[in-house]
Write a structure and sequence with these properties.
The protein is 47% helix and 12% strand. It is an alpha+beta fold and 196 residues long. A 4-stranded antiparallel sheet has the order 2-3-1-4. Helix 1 crosses helix 3, helix 3 (69-93) packs antiparallel against helix 4 and helix 5 runs antiparallel to helix 6 (158-172). Residues 94-169 form the GHMP kinase C-terminal domain. GO terms for molecular function: ATP binding; galactokinase activity; metal ion binding.
């Protein structure tokens, strides 16, 4: 595994899932699942027991073009994210940080375009860091509604990355000058208790 650190770029905007579209996205995914089952002439379950995870991707592929586009995009994000996670595990286990980073970028692109999450602030940070040398990959943190963007970076570039993200972001959003922060975290070998 190449040397890396994790950069956390806090937008300065406090994240609140209660006041975001997060719950709406959950319902849209359930509606997408219902659409797939209905168009495939499969039995429907109650809404609270309907999940995309229980429906094979092949069923989605057969119905993606006939269901409403909004629900098709939500399902596309789910199925592509599932695939990326499985590929990401293999990339991580084999030390392929380039592929892992690309999968992180692909995940964020799908979050923006298929899941339609990410505030203007988060999208700005993502777009800035995506173009910088030394960034292996990155994506929104958590659900992508306000909050932070995380990135895997080559430590040799972290000072220039922090300076450039800060400069470009605050040029677009000067109102966050007092709350925008960058944090750097080094990975460790698992979780354990630390003795004093």
């Amino acid at each position: 595994m190449p040397d890396f650190e994790i950069g956390i770029f806090f937008s300065g905007l406090t994240r609140s899932l209660v006041n975001s579209d997060y719950n709406l996205r959950v319902y849209e995914c359930k509606t997408a699942a219902w659409n797939i089952l209905a168009y495939a002439d499969q039995p429907l379950k109650t809404f609270d027991k309907t999940f995309l995870r229980d429906i094979p991707k092949e069923s989605f592929e057969k119905t993606r073009d006939i269901m409403p586009a909004r629900f098709s995009r939500r399902a596309e994000h789910f199925y592509s994210e599932y695939r990326r996670v499985r590929q990401g595990v293999t990339a991580w286990e084999t030390g392929n940080l380039q592929l892992f980073g690309k999968l992180s970028f692909d995940s964020c692109e799908s979050s923006i375009h298929n899941y339609e999450c990410g505030s203007p602030e988060l999208i700005a940070i993502y777009n800035i860091m995506h173009k910088l040398s030394g960034v292996y990959g990155g994506r929104f943190s958590g659900a992508g509604f306000k909050g932070a963007v995380i990135a895997l970076v080559d430590p040799a570039y972290k000072e220039s990355i922090e300076a450039e993200v800060t400069r470009q972001y605050l040029a677009q959003f000067p109102e966050y000058e007092m709350t925008f922060k960058t944090y750097w975290v080094k990975p460790d070998d698992g979780a354990r208790f630390i003795e004093n």
